[in-house]
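Weekly puzzle thread! Below is a chain. First person to post its structure in token form gets bragging rights.
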Amino acid sequence: MQEQLRRQFAELFGQGEEPRHFFAPGRVNLIGEHTDYNGGHVFPCALSLGTYALVRKRKDTKIKLFSTNFDTEGMIETSTTNLRFTPEHQWANYPLGVVKIFQDYKLEIKQGFDVLFCGNIPNGAGLSSSASIELVTAVLLNHLYDLQLEMMEMVKMCQRAENEFIGVSCGIMDQFAIGFGKKDHALLLDCETLRYTYSPIALEQVTLVIANSNKRRGLADSKYNERRFECRSALEQLQAVIHIHSLGDVSPQEFEKYKHLIQNETNRRRAEHAVYENQRTIEAVEKLQAGDLHGFGHLMNESHRSLRDLYEVTGAELDALVQAAWAQEGVLGSRMTGAGFGGCTVSLVESDKVESFIQDVGKVYRQASGLEAAFYRVEIGDGARELLQD
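Winning reply:
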């Protein structure tokens, strides 16, 4: 792939100094959904799928960007001196937002650059293609301009780019998992303190299968911000009586004692999900470390039910995929992953049942939704980095 991208880079930007190659993975969250911005725990891992970037510094201030995923939109061109959100730039606002945040931190990016992006993450599937392109941009800027930033700094700046430049109030999980990913490990992250631990994923005779519903997540951004507001409203009413900083500070026992303080029933359900999902995530990691994959799978199922019934972010397509998975022999657990309203599910499937799982779940889903699901057997990979050239 690197040689093919090298040739395409030369066709787009001309001959010259050899471009440098970078990669940032996508991520899948095994459990702990919509807990990150509520100060709770998440348990994501980086994938072998991701975003490649070839880049070369320019002598002027121009920035030229091209994506093989959006090739019909052609070359996007701007300048280091004129960085602002521009609707016509569409996908390019994500990397440009990272450049702008770097500049806001007084990091010197005066010369422009040419960059070719190529991603093999399904766009809009909930595997964090946006955070992936943000992190690959951050890492390439760090190396290209010798900024000597730590990964934690880049993760935080990429989250700011999405919050402030793009306008999506995401938590830090996606950027963190992509920045700090480690091969064959998931990481348990406390989103309030940013303390994290790696946990080996020894699946042995079980395979991690992602199913893309191919339902575009058209409502995800607006509903995401709406859920954040609902949780914040619930938190403020709880804070009137108990000393907490986030819903992640609340145990299930405390929630049951004080939930009557949340006057709006919808907000109460949102908070209930956040509190119990946080507890499920902690328990799930304990199950995994004890080798209890069936117990881990059970908690995945409970997570989906909570996201469906209390948080209401699944939608008909994701529910159909998960229900089809639950009915299959050899499935230990299955749940939606990502923001919801379309996107993907993640399932733990006995390895010798994967072929029948893909065939049968695909058939049931097609009948229920009229859509074709895409399935991926995934490996857990390393985080954002520069690639050695072949």
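Puzzle host: Confirmed. Bonus trivia for everyone else. DSSP finds eleven helices and 13 strands in the chain.
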